[in-house]
Each structure stands twice: as C-alpha cells, then as structure tokens.
Amino acid sequence: MMTLLHNDFVLEIIRLVLYAVGLIAFAAFNAAYLSLLERKIPSWFQLRYGPKEVGWWGLLQPVADGIKLLTKQLLVQRGADVVLFKLAPAMVIIPAIMCLATIPFSETLVPRNINLGLLVIFSFSAIHVIGTMLGGWASYNKYASIAAARVVAQNIAYEIPLLLILVSLVMITHSFNLHTIVDQQAGGFWHWNVLRLSASPLMPVAFIIYFICMLAESNRAPFDMVEAESELIAGAFTEYSGMGFGLFFIAEYANIVVGCALGTILFLGGWHCPFGLLPGLHWFLIKMYFLCFTVIWVRWSFPRTQFYGLLNLSWKVLIPIALANLMITAIMLKLF
Amino acid sequence: MSIEAKSIHRETFVINLGPQHPATHGVLRIKLTMDGEYIDDAEPIIGYGHRMHEKMGENRTYAKFLPNTARMDYVAALFNSFGYVGAVERLAGITVPERAEYIRVITAELNRVASHLLWAGAFLIDLGGFTPLLYTFDDREQILDLLESVTGARLTFCYYRFGGVCNDIDDEFVAGTRQFITRLRSRMPMYHALITKNIIFRKRCEGIGPITADVCRRYGGTGPVLRGAGVAYDVRKAEPYSAYPQFDFNVPVYPESDCMARYLVRMDEIVESLRIIEQALDKLPAGPVMAEKVPRFLKPPKGECYFNVESARGSFGVRAISDGTDKAYRMKLRSPCFSNLSLFQECSRGMLLADALALLGSLDLVIPDIDR
Amino acid sequence: MTLAELSTQLQALQGSTVTATDHSKQGVNLDVTITSNMIPEVARLMGEAKFALEAITGVDWLAEQQIEIVYDFTCYATGVRVAARTRVSRETPEVASISAVHPGANWHERESHDFFGITFTGHPGLIPLLLPEDADFHPLRKDYGT
Question: Which residues of C touch B226 (CB under 8 A)?
Fold first, then answer.
C-alpha cells in the first residue's frame, strides 16, 4: 500500500480523480445556486420575494428543481435526429467543465497548470457553440433552427473581438499560462491588468469589451439571441425536456463561471488582494462572484438587443476598438 | 429588386406564431411566411377566443348583457361598459346626472392609466426586459385596489348602469385617488429613467415598425397607434361625450410613427389622464349618481344609434338597434384592436421577426377584444 | 371638404338619400341610404374625402326579408361621422367589396360574411375570420338556432 502511494503515477491518478469530481461538483453547485441567485437577486430589484418556500430563504429550491428535471421524461420529437439531439447537451456541458480544469483558483489550488492554459480554455469554449447549434438543428423545429443559425453568427462575431483583446493581453504578459499571468499582477489593484495603463491606455476598455463578449459568448441577456423567449419560445432548447434542458441550463451557468473566473484572472488579479494583503482563494471567489452578480444584474436591467444590433455592435464597434487596442499595445511595447 | 428576385433562389418557410406563444399575449395565431429571419407575409388568424358577444346582445335583455361588455377588453373593461351604456342611454333618451358622469370619467381614466401601465410592462417583456413589468404592476395594483373599493371588482368591472353608476364614491376613494395621483406623478421620472432612456430600448423602438397616418386611415387604426402617427384624433375631443368637454387636457401626438412614438403617446396619456382625474375630483358636483325614473325593464323606443368612446386602445363603438322590445335587435360592437391588428399584415412585410414582434407589442392588443 | 360639400356629393350619387342627423341623438352626422350597386362609389368618395372605415354592421330584417349593411365612416381630421346603409335581399345577399379602397374593410367584410352570409364580390379571400374554418352557418341571422 505504501509503495503504491509513493508511486507518482498512482498519486497523479488520485489527484486527477479528486479534481475531476471536485470540478464537476463545483460546476453543478454553481449552476444550482447561481440559478437560485438568479431568482433572488432580481427579486430584490423587482419588489418581490423570490423563492422562499423550499427550505430557509429558498435554499433547497435548486434541489427541488433538480428533482423535477430528473423525474421528467426526455422526449424526442418525431423527425428529430436522435443521436445528435441526445449528444448536444453533453457537447455543451463537457467543454464548460473542461475549461475549469486550467483555472488557478489560488496559488496552490489549480487542477492542471498548463503552459498554454489560456489557449486550452478558448479551444474548449468554442465547442459549446457547436453543441448548441446541433441541439437546435437536430430538434426538427423551426424556432430551434432559427436559433441555431443565430448562435453561429453571434459566436463568430464575438470570438473575434474577444481573441483580439486576449492577443494584446498575451503580448503584455508574454505568457499563456494563467498562473504566470496572475503572478504578474501581485501587489495591489494598481498592478492589475485592468489598470495597466503603461502597457496600453485602453486596458479598462479592453476589460469592458471582454465582459461584453463574455456575455455574448455565454448567450446571456441582453444578448440571449439563442433563447429569446419572447421571439423564439425557448430558441435552441425548445424541444428539450427534463435533464436534456437541465444540462443546457447547467452549462449556461458553468460558462458564466468560466467567463467570470477568466475575467478575474486576466484582468482583476486573480487571488491577489487589492491592497496586497492576505492573498488566497477567498479573493478569487469574491471577485468571481462579483462578476457573476454583475452578469445577473445586467440581465435583469436591460431588454434584449436586436439581432442585427448585436452583430453591428461587434463588427462596427468592438472589433475596431479591439484592433486599436492591439495596435496601441504593440506600439507601446516597441517604444518602451 | 426584380432582377435579384428572379436570379436568386429564395426559399421561404411557414412558421406558426401562436396560438400559444409568449409574444402574442393570448390566443392569437400569426402565420408567418419567412425568408430567413425576414417576414415575407404575416397573416393574423383570429377567432380562437370568439364568444359571439353580438348574438348574446340580441338574445338577452339590455341589463343582462351589461356584464358581457367587461369580458371583451378585460384590461380596460370600463370603457366597453361606457360605450354600451352610452349607446343604450342615447337610444332610450336617458339623461345621466352630472355627478355620475364625473364618476364615470374618474373611474374610466383610472382604468386607462392601469391599462397603459400594464401595456408598458408587457411591451418590455416582448422586448426581453422583465423588470419594468413588476414596477408597473405595483402601480396598477394601487388602481385596482381603488377601483375594487368602489366597483367591487378588480378586472371585469360591471359598474356603470343605464342612467348612472351603481355605487357612489366616498371620501376614502377620493383621498386614495389623490394620493395615487401624487404617487404616480413622482414615479413617472423613474419610468423614464428605467425605460425611456434605456439605450437598448431606444434602439429597438426608434424607427422600428412604422405605421403611417395613411395606413391608419385605410385600416381604421385608432387610439395611440393613430396618435403615434401624428394624427391628433381622440374621440374625447372629436365627438365629446360624458363630462369630457368640461376638462382641460391635451392629446399627445408624436409624428415619428414608430414604436417609440406609440410608447411615448401612452406614457404622456397617463399624465394627461391624471390631470383629468384631478380636475374631476376638484370639481366633483354633489347630487344623485343614478337618473330617476329609469325603468327596471328597459324598453328603448324603436330606433338606431351609434356611440363611441375613446378606450385605452382606440375608438370603441357600439351601434345599437332597438325594435321597441326589452332586447336589442342588433348590438354591433366595434373593437379598436380588431382594426389595429388588421394593419399588421401590411406593416410587418419585410421586417425582421424580432422587430415585427416589437410592432405587434406596440399595437397593444387584447385578443378577446378582437375575437369578441 | 366641408360637411355640406360632402353631403352634396353623396346626394349626387344615383339613388341616394342623404339625411343630416343630430350627432347627439344618432351618433352620426350624415346618414346615407343608397342602392347596393353604388356602395363602391360611396367608398371611393369617402376615401377621397380622407374618411376611415370604422365598422361594417350587418342587420338581418327578417320581416322584410332583407339584410341591411351599414358602413360607418369617420374622418380623423374633423371628427365627422357618416353612416352609409344599403339593403340587399335576404336570399342572395350580395354587395361589391370595398377592400380595394379601404383595406381595413377586408376583415370587416369577412366578419359580416361569417355572421350573415353576405357575399362581398371582388373580395380577395372570403374565408371565415372569427368562426371555425368549416363553419357553414350564419349565427347573427334571426332564424339561426330557432
């Protein structure tokens, strides 16, 4: 037994299993309780109570929702492509969880510290688009097909400014490694990338663009073209019932968590304290959940954008600014 | 255009918007022929909630038909009653006491405010913004409480009678209404900050869904839809009825003809209605609320008349024909939504689906009013 | 166009009787009775005078074996209201459609077709509007259901 534990390979396996279980639990826990917050937070905006019957403060509401979704039958519409229809939710949820694998939650708590961590996240997060599109396409439903076409156009439009921002960020930090990027921001909030004006005066703008793109990429209001309940009923998820829908739901929140975690790491100094004191996991979580709160806040404050307005915003506003940011960063790097 | 139309292969598909759809606010079905996300043709199919109110108007006594009127446009139920009792009073030659006319105006205008508030919230839901609905509902709830205290109902009011109203208003109602006027006035800037100034809302409404004055005329569109097209037509001014000539109020008009204009017309109408209510409360005369000598079984003399009122949605008209018996010979109910929806097919052509739904929402449809 | 001018023009139409009515009693300013073949002429005239069609009302006069059709026009600029009425036989109620001049008449005519079985010739699609699509009855006829 002792020899086994000394075996690095076995240790690594145990570590992997623990992290895998932990990450899935983290994703599921966040989906459950962000969905509770998604009801509680707007209830404060909207002069109402929100869930309060199931458990104290509605704390068991996500459990009740989970049971409800699990006990519902997963119906497959006649004419639907059964394989793709059933595969799509998995294709959306798995990449979202995979993305979490390279996120450094604190100095020591990182599932897999890969040199190309940033690249891995963007490779995986691109897959969920395909999953949503296939889900809409395989549903054999016209509303879902419209949503499937929308999701592709939307994600192509918003990947570009997002990647342009990240390219300029990588130019500044000289690293794809998320751990290294966070380490560079130690010391205090004036060291954070969002305020690194010496590298590029447009950094705060870049952060805002990142946030907007993150909303669009995770199909959140005001850019929730894929769901657009007042136009397309439930968009790509119209035909999904039970846990099929539930997986899309979890994936949406997992994507938000990934997006907010990444925003924290890239721009807000990760686990570092704003005043250089007591760095650790708690700072990371505070910043990440603050961003999550902002995402919810935005959703309940704005109406949905028009689809062409969404594309115009990306192609005519965000991409030129992101390009300008890239140029300025390059020039500043060369000059100083 | 013609060259393109010939050389490019266009594939259209038909999609059913409704009868159950979040954006249709009831059992309205729109058969959309779509070219991608663009609408080639949108044919409204109505009648899912048809109850044949006009026949019911013929086969029951005048008084028995009264509650039916509230079931048509249930969001602004008092206006339908107003039109109906107005027509019957005109037919039977009943004069309504001054105080009753004032009370009718006060309650009807309160109902108009409630209807417009509900519309504003529901319109925002059509555009994907959920929060304003809860605020407008909060204010509407105050109105419903007030109306409940005097009419006994919260939605399908049956308050007006031939020759007056069935209950007098008390000091509590007057005080409550004054309090509400102050409250809503102080909240209007909040609505403008929350909705009108919202950049996404403006983008989705300005220049979207044009309905010109000419289209309105050809289709008989009335109400805020017409006034949002720059025509200052309001039945309260054009064919003054009840106590309206005694009040000073403006008819808000916006010439832009888009969704924003229709939204602003309604928001301004709320303010104007509050002014009317305030004046009516100030000038409220004493006296009876029911005309004397209205027979229990009303038998208007042989004849025919038309009476129309400015409902929250436009011109609601009643053409009543009496043959001298206790039942109407014909009771035509002209609903504003019916005409307002009929122009949708022409106006939505070539629009994007989401814009067309903004247009549909801005018409302020109540489907049972269309179906009758 | 003033009310008097309009009245003169309507009076000039063949077979028309124009009555100026008391708005406070009848709810209309002008009441025009005309033969059914002149309805398109009236519609054209009202269209030129910038009147909007407010409603089309059918009335079944069982005793006279006639069906009356009342067209309510209103002018947004002046608030003047004109009712044009015509009578057709109850057996074959037929009148020309005015939906080309007043597109809004399309639905009103379909509704009257539903309720009274009036045939509006030249109507683009006289299919049931409010009644079920296979409805072959006309509920507002006085002998319906007896």
Answer: 76
**In terms of CATH, what superfamily is B3-371?**
Cytochrome-c3 Hydrogenase, chain B (1.10.645.10)
Q: Which helix (H) or strand (E) holds B29?
A: strand B29-35
C-beta atoms surrounding A297 within 10 Å: 13
Neighbours of chain C (3+ CB pairs under 8 A): B
Percent of chain A whose predicted confidence (pLDDT) is above 90: 1
Q: Measured between beta carbons, which residues in chain C are less than 8 angstroms from residue B231?
A: 76-77
CB contact under 8 A, B198 and A302: yes
Look at strands B314-322 and B303-311 and give their pairing.
antiparallel
- This prediction has a pTM of 0.88
Which one of C57, C78, C123 makes the best mutation probe of the B interface by having the most chain B beta carbons within 10 Å?
A: C57
Output the DSSP codes for B80-148: HHHHHHHHHHHHHTPPPPHHHHHHHHHHHHHHHHHHHHHHHHHHHHHTT--HHHHHHHHHHHHHHHHHH
pLDDT tens-digit series, residues A87-109: 888 888 888 888 888 888 887 77
Residue C109: which residues within 8 A CB-CB, separation 6 or more? C56, C97, C98, C99, C118, C120, C123, C126
| C-alpha distance from C77 to closest chain B C-alpha (Å) | 7
Parse chain B into domains and list their residue ranges. 3-371
Query: Between chains, do C76 and B231 touch, taking CB under 8 Å as contact?
Result: yes
- Could you tell me the residue range of the domain that residue C117 belongs to? 3-121
Please indicate, yes or no, if residue C141 is contained in any of the structural domains: no
